[in-house]
Amino acid sequence: MRNRDGLTLGYRFTWRLNWLLLHVAGPAEQADDTDPRRRMERERAARVARYRAEQGKS
């Protein structure tokens, strides 16, 4: 089994679907601090970092 960094299948599926929908039908490209796709990417990276930190404690 491959490591998914603590992200469930449902989370990964809905995240990718939302990201693609924002890419196709979302707002025009914006600055990184206001772009919803970039916000999603930052939130996902934070979730993975939190999971990796918890794994390091164990």
TrEMBL record:
<feature type="compositionally biased region" description="Basic and acidic residues">
    <location>
        <begin position="34"/>
        <end position="58"/>
    </location>
</feature>
<feature type="region of interest" description="Disordered">
    <location>
        <begin position="28"/>
        <end position="58"/>
    </location>
</feature>
<protein>
    <submittedName>
        <fullName>Uncharacterized protein</fullName>
    </submittedName>
</protein>
